[in-house]
Amino acid sequence: xxxxxxxxxxxxxxxxxxxxxxxxxxxxxxxxxxxxxxxxxxxxxxxxxxxxxxxxxxxxxxxxxxxxxxxxxxxxxxxxxxxxxxxxxxxxxxxxxxxxxxxxxxxxxxxxxxxxxxxxxxxxxxxxxxxxxxxxxxxxxxxxxxxxxxxxxxxxxxxxxxxxxxxxxxxxxxxxxxxxxxxxxxxxxxxxxxxxxxxxxxxxxxxxxxxxxxxxxxxxxxxxxxxxxxxxxxxxxxxxxxxxxxxxxxxxxxxxxxxxxxxxxxxxxxxxxxxxxxxxxxxxxxxxxxxxxxxxxx
Length: 298
Prior knowledge:
Elements: E1 13-16, E2 20-31, E3 47-54, E4 56-61, E5 64-69, E6 72-76, E7 82-87, E8 92-102, H1 105-113, E9 118-120, H2 123-134, H3 143-146, H4 149-170, H5 181-205, H6 213-220, H7 224-235, H8 239-257, H9 262-268, H10 274-285, H11 289-297
Antiparallel strand pairs: 1-2, 2-8, 3-6, 3-8, 4-5, 4-7, 6-9
Helix pairs in contact: 2-4, 4-5, 5-7, 5-8, 8-11, 9-10
């Protein structure tokens, strides 16, 4: 990342689904060459994440001094006193304050108990920062009023995807060994399907192209057969069926919220041609994308 927008104000994002309820209090970049990064000792009722894009900072969390440098981040859990006591002149960082309630009670409790440990950046966190930095300054006000629908979708999906990549870093592999076997298996299966759907949505929202089953099995480190069995047991649908439903959902979103041409939508949703998009949509909806768009506009 070579350029930075000087000021990005608060973004208000709410995500409420079967996986979690997420409220973002702020999501912004701060830079030492435009403002003083030192803070007073404080604590919050929500989570606060500091991600260093360049330079370094020294954080005092409770009574512990923590040195954080480029490409590293730390999650400060609620009710921990903290302050920034020092930083380098070239420091640029992303600050992410959010509330999160997970439907899985065990994971929710483990998230609240997560210690203030230094972590290396994740792919979704970097994409989130890059998207914020790329926005023009005049769009850095209220998300719902000033940002285009496609950027709103990108921010929501990347934020949700980052939360799911954050959990494995905070929760050790053996945290489920003390709960009943049936609960552990069900939670594990549900979590895999939720990660699969979040990954699909984040890739489409960022224009990375529509993912394949191979992409998902590589991300989750399981075989195609295992993934398909888990999807069937959890949702009653094959992994391919879930992929197709998510593709269809995204096509509907683009048709109803943007002015993109069918050629552009075909590219964003992973089709080799506009004709393939039209055929896919017509087989499942009973009418063409153009007819769907006209009905929505009416």
